[in-house]
Amino acid sequence: MRRVFLATASAAALTLAAGTAGAQCDPDFSGVTVTVGSQTGPFIASAMQMAGETWAEQTCGEVDVVEFPFGELYPKYLTAMLQNEATFDVITFAPAWTPDFAPYLSEMPAEIRQTEAWQDIAPVYRDRLMVWDGVHKSQTIDGDLHTLSYRTDLFSDPAEMAAFEAEYGYPLAAPESWDQYYDIAAFFTRPDDGLWGTAEAFRRGGQQFWFFFTHAASYTNHPDAPGCMFFHPETMEAQINNPGWLRALEDYIRSVEYSPPGALNFSSGDIRTAFAGGQVAMNFDWGDTGTISVDPAQSTVAGHVGSALTPGSDQIYNCLTGEWSQYDSVIRSPFMAFGGWQAAVPEASDDLQAAWHFIEWASNPENSLQAAITGGSGVNPYRFSHFETIDVWLGNFSQVEAEAYLGAQRGSLEAPNITLDMRLPGYFSYTEILEIELSRALAGDVEPQDALDAIAEGWDELTDEFGRDAQLAAYRASMGLPPM
Question: Model-level pTM greater than 0.90?
Answer without folding.
Answer: no
